[in-house]
Amino acid sequence: MTGAATDAPIRVDGISKRYGGVTALADVSFTVPAGEITGLLGPNGAGKTTLLKILTGLSRADAGSAAILGVPVSEPTSRTPLGYLPEVVAFPRGPTLDEFLMLHARLLGAARTEAGARITRLVDRLGLGDARSRPIAALSKGMRRRAGLAHALLGEPAVLLLDEPSADLDPIARRELESLLLEEKRRGIAILLSSHLLLEMEPLAGRVAMLHQGALLAEGSVSALLPTTHLVEVTISSVTDALRSATAHLLPTFRESERKMTVATNDPALAIELPKLLDGIGVRYEAVTTRRPNLRDLFFSLLEGKKP
Amino acid sequence: MRPALRLLAVDALRTLLTRRASALLLVLLFGLLTAVSCSLQLAGESVVNGQVVPIDNETRSGLAVGVAYGGVHFLGLLLVLFVIVPAITGEMESGVASWIFVKPIGRETYLIARMLGGLLFLAAFSAFVVAGLEVLLLKYSGRFEARAILGWVTLLILLASYLGWGVLLSLHLGAGFGGLLVLLLAGLGAAVNLDPLTRILLWGGGSGAPAGILDAFLAPLFGAEGPPFLARAVYAALYFVLPGAGNVHDLAVGATFGRGLPIQGDAISLAIPVAGIPLALLLSLWLLKKREF
To answer: Nearest C-alpha of chain B: how many angstroms from A85?
Structure first.
């Protein structure tokens, strides 16, 4: 591990976790630097929530270690610089949003007046101003998630752990969330953000850690992980066996999904050649496009054990 | 007191006080005080050592104390089992407690604070009845009964032990019953059956029974001379084995102020539930620290 990695606000080192016969995490190691949004990506059941729970002290690793700002997560003080938004947001019945946030701000050591100012700032920023005097448990799903986010930011954390933060949010709220996270990133906060929505992460995350069935598939900066190749996509009305055999012969690197067939190439000119090839074998196509690979392509190619 | 402990305890108390069940409890407490008032105006006769005697002021006072403490004990037990313990453990099951566990606050602080909040709630409601009892005693007998305050403290100790065992049992049945078994053996070792479960089952009913019920039962069997030595020995044993029966015994003979109280005033009686509180708390903390959310 490099010196910079050792100083990283979040360090995960060889974490393993099993639930009975199920491996939730298998020897996972990565770091999250300050001033970066790191996407913890993977499908449902990949181990993302388990890892976040280990980092927050809600769960314990069977093997390996993890630290927040150098403090092992087994120590309660490791949670001092932490802001956390869980995947399932459950609030107590009874208190209003204001009362809930006031209690938790005070638990974090803020004086009443200081806590009040912080709460006002946060609820305004998250568009919750009208909900302050409403029972927190009775808020809509999207508002509850925003309230959870307000809670995560209450202590002005140096490390932010967010588990599927955009779930239950409408498109407008998602855009606001993105700008808020980018703002926090600029403040130098280390943000680890879990999501199974790979494409949604792309504009946000400078780094990613990809998990699948508890194993780390890849980790690093998005720019370094994404290949420099181009993807040529052919959209056709239906993918037939005849077409498969014909294109397999012509383009053995073709991959198909739904109505698209995709080939990774270092030759952008293929986009010009391909229509001719398809015309030559009598295939009717709707469009031929060229694009750069995204996180979704990377994830599937890693699953298949090959570069896109 | 540490700020987190105070904040969480006050929050627990506020949550309990603002529940709908608390409004119902208030109605029940007024009902209980009415029963206490009625018992102070009771007319009739009582059988003491085979003798039929008119109920005197001392007996009436004893009965009022018995009704008040019996009622508080029974209601307190219901509150512990059906309101306070579910509130604490429900918070953990639903994930609400996770908001606190992800802060630099030890789980022991959380649990102690929540239990303290529950205990404050029990103290508040029982203080309401004790204060009412004192006012009624002052009105009917013209004296302020300072020893009722001592009874209130011992009652709180007992309710605290129920709370401890209730939380432990809801966290882990095996550990809860294991701990209770230890207490039972300790109680048997002291030749006094004082395990909390026995108290739970017997005390409430026993202390609520009419005064003199055992004497009334024994008198027709043994006549005016009273029961023979063996029967008295069995009766004395019952006094220790069945705390509730002991309370009735006290009420009937008007012997001690211990009547109506769950703990008869001897050190061993008090020591067992007192020892049970830290035992239950330590086991609960151990389980909570091990638990993953």
So the answer is: 9
